[in-house]
Amino acid sequence: MAAMTRPLLNRRLAEFGTTIFAEMSALAVRTGAINLGQGFPDTDGPEEIREAAVRALRDGRGNQYPPGPGVPELRSAVAEHQLRRYGLEYDPDAEVLVTAGATEAIAAALLALVEPGDEVIALEPYYDSYAACIAMAGGTRVPVTLRPSEGRFVLDLDELRAAVTDRTRLILLNTPHNPTGTVLTRAELAAVAELAVERDLLVVTDEVYEHLVFDDAEHVPIASLPGMRERTVTIGSAGKTYSFTGWKVGWVTATPALTTAVRSAKQYLTFVASGPFQYAIAEALRLPDSFLDGLRADLLAKRNLLSDGLAGAGFDVYRPAGTYFVTADIRPLGATDGIAFCRALPERAGVVAIPTAVFYDHRDAGAPFVRFAFCKERPVLEEAVSRLKALGG
Ligand code: PMP
Ligand code: GLN
Predict the structure, then answer these.
(1) Ligand 1 centroid from CA 391, angstroms
(2) Per-position pLDDT tens, the chain of length 393
(3) Which residues line ligand 2 (CB under 6 A)?
(4) Residue with CA closest to ligand 1 atom 14
(5) Could you tell me the distance, in angstroms and rounded to a whole number, from the CA of residue 250 to the centre of ligand 1?
(6) In the beta sheet, which residues pair with residue 328?
(7) How far apart are CA 141 and CA 244, in angstroms?
(8) Ligand 1 pocket, 92 CB below 6 A?
């Protein structure tokens, strides 16, 4: 047989190897280190929601293909949620689409809306699947870097404006932002909205951390700003809010035309997924707000524990306003290369973190930053902090 000289992985995907999350979780398993890398909680979500999934399985709801747009119960619950929380009205039949997690929603939105050669603006550091999906859609990613300033990673609105060209199709937003923990303010979002309207751009906004906001930060869906409902695809997910990341239940809310476009791509990706879990998440979305208050209070205490612990260990810490990640600068510890730092960390301290450089095109801008997840039980975080203290010494 002739040797296969042509690379197997096509050119669009050649730059994307194994995800950093898979690499770092495997490293944690191999070394037995505490895994503060990949963002998943180490305890499951509410018992009654688990039971709701069991009930759906037993009652034969969702064990066969659910409807393509998602089960009606969940679509209604998503629409009610957007109305109750944000005053955004969506028709559950025409304007809500259930997806296999936010991941599929992102992929389907980009595959549906981006023409080869279109430019897509993404905030850098960007969640890894954005880059891969823009590439799969044949688009060109145009990163706009969030820059550290006074304890927060900040969007430079002039840079954003300068990044728009005649080939820009859409702005891919993420707030609360993974990995930096930045929550875009109403004023920042208003400026993004103004630009989108002025340049006639679509906005795809990933809001999977919408409920994980702290202190006086407020999550504002950009779809709620003037002129934006008709040009915005909003993406949500149950994974983060309800601590069931394995269930892969996500959703899109958008105008009928945008929803139909996204569904056109989605139907050829998974077609449908997560049947019984869709019913359970419909119940989760109707839990009283006290559930979300409890979640936030628990995570706030953990954010403070980990942020203070990292500062005590010698890192420069960016205390997040949202998400369950803390970004830390390793330079005070005498290191500059976050990738090398994270590869060595299990050996040095028995802890796994994520180097955020891999989420940058401008690698230098991200080199010294590493991300730690705090969606873990208190004793786990306490042990991690005590191990990390050894680094400074
Ligand atoms: N977007 C962001 C910003 C994320 O951090 C994640 C990972 N949880 C996802 C999307 C993927 O969400 P899901 O697990 O619902 O596919
Ligand atoms: N969203 C999770 C994180 O940022 C990981 C998801 C994944 O493994 N792809 O850590």
Answers:
(1) 31
(2) 666 788 889 999 999 988 999 999 999 999 999 999 999 999 999 999 999 999 999 999 999 999 999 999 999 999 999 999 999 999 999 999 999 999 999 999 999 999 999 999 999 999 999 999 999 999 999 999 999 999 999 999 999 999 999 999 999 999 999 999 999 999 999 999 999 999 999 999 999 999 999 999 999 999 999 999 999 999 999 999 999 999 999 999 999 999 999 999 999 999 999 999 999 999 999 999 999 999 999 999 999 999 999 999 999 999 999 999 999 999 999 999 999 999 999 999 999 999 999 999 999 999 999 999 999 999 999 999 999 998 876
(3) 19, 21, 38-39, 178
(4) 101
(5) 9
(6) 317, 370
(7) 30
(8) no
